[in-house]
Amino acid sequence: MGDEPETPFDSVESAQEFVELLVEAIEEARREVEEAVTVPQPERRLQALQLVSFKLGKLAIHMETGRRLLNDLRTLRRLLLSERASEPEPPEDDQASPNLPSL
User: Which range marks the domain in which residue 72 is found?
Assistant: First the structure.
């Protein structure tokens, strides 16, 4: 896991950068489609543009989910590789029952 990446997608950070670029491209395409919808179009073309806008919106939602997942993976990797400073564990409470979790 500590090896240098050989391709642009060998690290979570590079995947995050790719997703960010993809999100920007999706938003740009969506703006262009929304602009095209305002111009008089034949009905069939207008419906197609509206469908494209809808699909781009769904893709944007999926990319946002992907961003969060990549961020979670980066955080977990840092925890697993001890990249974050370890927090001291709370002291054991002498009064707590050993079979019950402390709240």
Answer: 12-80
Q: What is the pLDDT of residues 64-86, one digit of tens each?
A: 999 999 999 999 988 998 855 55
Residue 20 in domain: yes
Rounded Cα–Cα distance for residues 31 and 52 (Å): 11
For residue 41, being part of any structural domain is answered with yes
What is the rounded CA–CA span in Å between residue 56 and residue 26? 6
Q: What is the DSSP string of 32-72?
A: HHHHHHHS---HHHHHHHHHHHHHHHHHHHHHHHHHHHHHH
pLDDT of residue 82: 82
| Residue 66: inside a domain | yes
Residues 16 and 22 sit within 8 Å (Cβ to Cβ): no
Determine contact, residues 53/37, Cβ cutoff 8 Å. yes
Low-confidence ranges of the chain (pLDDT < 70): 1-6, 8, 83-103
